[in-house]
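Support request, please re-run this one:
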Amino acid sequence: MSNVLRSALAIVSIILIQPLTNAQIIYTRQIRNNDDLVLIDEKGQTQVIADHPRKDSSPMVSPDGKMLVFTSERVGWWKIWTMNMETKQTHQLTHESSADYSPAWSPDGQQIVFISSRDGNQEVYVMNKDGSNQVNITQTADAEAMPYWSKDGYIYYSASIDGVYQLARIRPDGKEKEILTDSPDNKLMPQPSIDGKSILYYGDTDGNMEIYLLNTEIGLVNRLTNHPLMDIRPRWSPDNSRIVFERGNKRDNHHIYIMNRDGTELKQLTTENYNYSPSFFIYPHK
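Re-run finished. Output below.
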């Protein structure tokens, strides 16, 4: 298929977006090494959000549902982009020669946190939603990953300490950095609940990558999944009642699942292709 035809189909596919029934999930679908952004509902109905000749990945909708932030290889190595969900206009936010990825919105939708290796190793950066004022807020020699901007005013992330990823948090201005865990197992992608009583993450505490919920009041860890394949990259629903995640081998068997916050009512949403980086979709509101 020519690039011109692919672009024309992409325009048609994104204009015809309509509300899906039940929970709506936006994720990355890879077909023949091309990664596109797709919507899916609990009935398995899908709609393509962006179909570009180069790879798009890691989509997350802004709190008001009006903007989409994602990573893309449209101009080379991974960079951070946004898309206006009404006009479908895209805008490149980062332009460094290094990879920029793992974007997430601030609670007010005015800023974006992300990971960049532009200073020599993976560190946490923040910027305005238009790409201005990009600042390295962690400034460490160790690797950091998967930041999330919480409503409690902290940015949570995973920090490599002596080669093991621990849960950490920091203020958006780089102050009050704190390592929250100290254990021999990896803990990745921390996301506090709305009430601040739990932290959702995935890790290899039990040998395989599974999804866990840490009770921050008493320190109790609840394992939510138990499967031979990897269970990774969980995301809360807006009301924290459900969790979406990916399960697979990162090859020919990798799919999107949804479950209740206690791990019950597990449901597989995708059944073919390689699917990853899911999050809940929010429709625009005033």
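The two ends are 39 Å apart (CA to CA). The chain has one helix and 24 strands.
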